[in-house]
Amino acid sequence: MPRTDTPAATPATAAGLTAARAHILAAQSADPSYAGHNVGQYIELVGPLDTAALDEAVRRTLDEAPWLRSRLTGRGGLPRLDTSAAAHPVSAAVELVRGQLVCPPRPELFTAPVDTGPAPDLTGALLVTVGPEHHLLVQYFHLLAVDGYGVALIGRRIAEVYTALVGGRPPGPTPFAPASVLADADRAYTGSAAQAEDRRYWTGRYADRPAPVSPAGRAAPAQDAVRRHTVHLGAADGAALRAAARSARVTWAEVVLATTAVRVTAQAGAREAVLAVYATARTGPGTLRVPATAVNVLPVRLPVRGSDTFRSLLRAAAGELTLLRRHQRFRGEELAREVWPAYGGGRVPGPLVNLRPFETELDFGGIRGRVVSLASGPVDDLSVSAAVDRLGRLRLDFDANPALYGEAEPARFAALFTEDLAALCRAPDVPVASLQASPVHH
Hints:
Layout: H1 11-14, H2 19-30, E1 38-46, H3 51-64, E2 80-82, H4 89-101, E3 123-131, E4 134-142, H5 148-166, H6 180-189, H7 193-205, E5 227-232, H8 235-248, H9 252-268, E6 272-279, E7 296-303, H10 310-326, H11 332-339, E8 352-356, E9 361-364, E10 367-375, E11 382-388, E12 394-400, H12 409-426
Parallel strand pairs: 2-3, 6-8, 8-11
Antiparallel strand pairs: 1-4, 1-10, 3-4, 5-12, 6-7, 9-10, 11-12
Helix pairs in contact: 3-5, 8-10, 8-12, 9-10, 9-12
């Protein structure tokens, strides 16, 4: 179980690192046995896969990002696993991968230089056969090496290189910028007028130190793994979501954020939700091309009164996200230590919203690659993770801290959330108090 008194990243610790990596390194060093900073995904490939070309595509992609190089991919290609004989081959593969994700990295990796040589305990990939012409390309990383945005860059490049190789043509030039671009951008930001302005905004916005609101009614340290329930929004509800977003001139992201605020306040009996939200924190030139770690988590606050309409909440959510993006480079860890010291000071406390604007499908030479996230990082309370596919269909992953929520709680919360979302989107001008589902008390 991770410590709650996570130390601040010091300048010595941060030397040569991005600000995000320095904070993650400090947190992992404080509790080397914690595995919650592991992230992972798989790409499901159904079709006549050229496995030799895939091996070569992965190798070339990692050669373009040597700070992610794994010894596993340097000896005869990707490791192989076959679960096709299992009763549920995909589930069997996923369970094996989840077992890998709850293994903490070796402690010595955090006392050695992190930018040189292979990192077998921080990065990894394998190819799983789950049936005839049915494979899973599994990727797992520690957040010290790469964040979710960086993982998306890597997956996209592997698909591009594979497509070129099977088409008999050389891959185009690498789209990646070196990892030093992120570190240089952080050094330029530190101590700048922009950082001072961002600090003034965040400390002023949360000067009243609002108490975190949780359906659990209490706090507990994040665990190595989470309880998860996944929902794929149906066609009718998806159409209602898109119509509500269009009418309010927002996107699906604001719909998810506002619905989360409605559900959390309903269950907690509160009038305002303070939600932690992921931000890429990549605003400098070239930073969007670096498959490394820059991710930040910052708060948004959304008052929810019974007389509010969903349309007004959507506009409020849009305003909050605009301000967050404008000031997204100020580290959430620093803000948390100042505003919420009683909660450990390591991360913005409370429910988390992960709005994932990444591709959920990739083209592998005519084979559709469906991207499925398995873990995105620490979950202190509840997490609502959302992504939309190329047809506009919404996938929602509800993750819960098992120290706070029982086995059935993620499914219960998900059912109430989707009931709220459907009702609110179909009647955006009706007071939310008359539409939201009944709360579940913990």
